[in-house]
Structures are given as C-alpha cells and as structure tokens.
Amino acid sequence: MPAICELSWQCAGQIALFQLKMNFVRYYPIAGLAFVIFWVWKKGYFQRFKIQQAFPRSERIRYEILQSAVTLIVFTLIGVATFAARKAGYLPGEIYRDAGKYGGWPYMIFTIVAVTVWHETWFYWMHRLVHRKRLYKHIHLVHHKSINPTPLAAYNFHAIEAFLEGIYLVIFTCLVPTQFWVLMGHTFYAMIMNIWWHLGYEFFPAAWASHPILRWINTSTHHNMHHAKFDGNYSLYFNFWDRIMGTNFPDYEKHYAEVTARRRQERADAAAAV
Fold first, then answer.
1. CB-based contact 200:111 (threshold 8 Å)
2. pLDDT at residue number 7
3. 36, 177, 214, 241: which is deepest, by most CB within 10 A?
4. 107 vs 97, 99, 172, 189, 245, CA distance in Å?
5. Amino acid 85: pLDDT
6. How many Cβ atoms are within 10 Å of 227's Cβ, its own excluded?
7. What long-range pairs does 10-14 form, CB within 8 A, spacing at least 24?
8. What is the pLDDT of residue 15?
9. Contact residues for 33 (Cβ-Cβ < 8 A; gap 6+)
10. Predicted local distance difference test score (pLDDT) of residue 270
11. What is the DSSP letter of 210?
12. Which of 26, 24, 115 is nearest to 76 (CA)?
C-alpha cells in the first residue's frame, strides 16, 4: 500500500495503481488456477464431484474472463473514489492501521463478524433487487448468461452490478472504523468464497445441506442451482435469509443429496471394477 500522502492526482494515481494490481493479481491467478485444475487438467478425475455434468462452450468462458476485468476496474474506481472523498472530508469513517486502537483484537474480531453479517445482508437484498424484471434484463442478465458457471464467472458482472457488489464496504467503513488488514482479509475471503460458489463442483459431505447446524452454511450446489434455475437461492455465505424468507428452492436439499449420491455411486462402481 502506498504511504499515506496528501490528496493529489499523483497520490490518487498511486492508490489506483496499487488497487488495480491487487485486484487483478489476486483474482485471475486464483480463479484461473481453480479453472485449470478442475475444468481442464483433472476434469476427468473430478467429474464425479461436478454439479452439472456438461461443460460450457469456450466462448462463454472467454466472456467470463473479459467481463471480470470490468468488475475489477469498477472495484478499483470505488476504492480510489472512497479514498479521495475521505481524504477531502466528504466521507465519515476511518480505516486505521494501529491494531491496538479501539481496544485491539476484541474490537477487530467484532468488525470481522460485523462486516460478514453486513455483507450477507446487503448481498441478499441487493441480489433480489437485481432479479426484478426491469433490472434483471439490463443488469443481472450479464452474470446469469453463465448457466453452468466456471470459477471465472465469480466476478462476471455488469458494471452497475459490480458497483452494487462493491459499495457495501464503503457504507460499512463510513459507519464502523475498520482496521486495514481486517478489510484486506475480508475482501480476500469474499473473493475466495465467490470463486468457490462458482466452482461447479461439490466437495462438502453428503449430509451437509440437511444437517441441523451445517445447513445454515451455503454450498457450491446452492449457488449453482441459482444459476441453473434463476429465481431462488439468493444468499451468499449463509443460508439464513433464504430460509427465513422462503426463497430457497424447495428441492435444494434433495438436489444436494443427488449430487453427493452420484459421487458415492461412481466411487463404489470404480472400487467394484478393480
């Protein structure tokens, strides 16, 4: 991160370059590596874990790669604009570096929990908003063209949706002072989970979606169903809002059981053939 500097075009340029590098260097190597391993190199080995058995066409994958760059640029612009506005005194809030400030680790742990809950809530209701007919066809359809998404679809958003996806952090840091590395850790975790939900493979245990505790944590199958069926399964990390609002697909747990049963059957068949 560039040293704290006076607000200037040079400073804004340094911040923009740092954020652009950070966004691109984090996203493409990780999403790309997941794609190469599961969708190219070892796709035969991992086929039994695949949620949708088919593979998308190459032009769809190229679109996901290119459109993700739009999202990364929008995220960068949000970061630079927020920095500039806060330095100029137009935005409240604080992103601080001293880990001992505000009571140290207990406060930092509180902000980790708070930003996760806030992100979950923001995402669910924003997601339902962009599924409204008029907004869907102009904005969210870009993401839903990936009916069988790859990891590279994680940031495949229309520019307006990318703005809606990223602005929750600006709101949070305006209201809650946040330590710099808590913020960096949260954005990295959010990116990893987004890639995971778009992986197209299910590795969680068979009883996960119906377990009394674990069912409150989402799965790759949960979000994959959203891409395949559109109007349902809107939540992000947790299955809280979908369950209390009744927006889970009714056959989610059944479908999850079918996906995991397929891999058990294929493993049993392979063992029997030896």
1. no
2. 45
3. 241
4. 13, 9, 15, 19, 31
5. 87
6. 21
7. 12/80, 12/83, 12/84
8. 64
9. none
10. 60
11. G
12. 24
Dihedral, CA of residue 125, residue 154, residue 177 and residue 95, to nearest 10: -150
pLDDT at 2 over 50: no
pTM: 0.90
Decide: 183 and 166 in contact? Cβ < 8 Å.
no
3 state SS of 107: helix
Q: What are phi and psi of 50, to 5 degrees?
A: -75, 135
Query: To which residue do tokens 């940031």 refer?
Result: 155
In angstroms, the CA 248 to CA 238 distance is 12
In terms of Cα–Cα distance, which of 97, 109, 101, 80 is closest to 10?
Answer: 80
Domain ranges in the chain are 9-204
The one-letter amino acid at 224: N
Token pair for 65: 């790669």
Beta carbons of 144 and 106 less than 8 angstroms apart: no
Higher pLDDT: 2 or 219? It is 219
Structural tokens at position 46: 């991992």
What are the tokens at 161?
A: 């949706």
Tokens 């991992």, residue located: 46
Place of tokens 């069988």: 148
* DSSP line for the chain: -PPP--SSHHHHHHHHHHHHHHHHHHHHHHHHHHHIIIIIITTTTTGGGBSSSS---HHHHHHHHHHHHHHHHHHHHHHHHHHHHHHTTSS---EE--TTGGGSHHHHHHHHHHHHHHHHHHHHHHHHHHTSHHHIIIIIHHHHT-SS--GGGTT---HHHHHHHHHHHHHHHHHS-EEHHHHHHHHHHHHHHHHHHTS-B--S-TTGGGSTTGGGB--HHHHHHHHHH-SS---SSBSHHHHHHT-S-TTHHHHHHHHHHHHHHHHHHHHHH-
